[in-house]
Amino acid sequence: MDNELCDFCKSLPFFILAYLVGIVYHKIIEYLFSPLRNCQGMIEKGKDMAIKSFVNHCKEPMSNQDIDYYEAYYYLMRKNCLYIIPVLEAQVALIKTIYPIIFLYTIYLAANGSIINMDDYLRLFVVTTLGILIVLLPCVWYIIQLKVYRFVFEGYFFIQDSIKKENEKETV
Asked: Which strand (E) or helix (H) includes residue 115?
């Protein structure tokens, strides 16, 4: 037991250092990706998608199932019970944080693969898979970020419409 405690005590500075390096790394990534945060073009596209979706729902009669779903969904949003947006934002943050690591590791593995004890075919498979991830992750990031903006504006439009309908009922 004392030996395990001693091993833990020896590794504690490593964990503290890793945590501090992680904080610095997070700030660097936050700075590098800041031009993409709240990108006006993406916000406008998400807003346009939400407007088209909302207008189409207003033009065509919605089924009771759709109405019930939207009312429940955005009621939860109004009450801060809808957690999909923070989950999606966390996914975006993970992609932005892990992307440079995957990129650098792929370059390292492709250039110095013989240093790592790895079969050539396995190394080729890993480098190819990581290369595909390098191409796909920005696309996934874009899709998720656009979905966040769309959900925000859909929720906003639906809540505004619900408030307007509630006010109309009260005045009648």
From this structure: none
pLDDT in tens, 57-88: 666 666 666 666 666 666 666 666 566 778 88
Q: Report the alpha-carbon distance of residue 143 to residue 139 in Å, rounded.
A: 6
CA 56 centroid distance within chain: 27
- The pLDDT tens digits of the residues spanning 112-155 come to 765 556 677 777 888 888 899 899 999 999 988 888 888 777 77
> What's the rounded Cα separation, in Å, for the pair 3 and 8?
9
Its pTM surpasses 0.85: no
**Tell me, what DSSP letter sits at residue 112?**
S
Secondary structure letter of residue 117 according to DSSP: -
| Residues, the chain | 172
CA-nearest of 51, 81, 77 to 155 is 77
Residue boundaries of the structural domains of the chain: 1-32, 39-171
Residue 80: what pLDDT? 66
Q: Is 96 exposed, middle or buried (0-12, 13-18, 19+ CB in 10 A)?
A: buried
Question: Which single residue is written with the structure tokens 């309908």?
Answer: 165
**DSSP labels for 20-36?**
HHHHHHHHHHHHHTGGG
Please choose, from the candidates 43, 7, 36, the residue with its C-alpha nearest in 3D space to the C-alpha of residue 146.
Answer: 43
> Using CA atoms, how far apart are residues 78 and 80, in angstroms rounded to an integer?
6
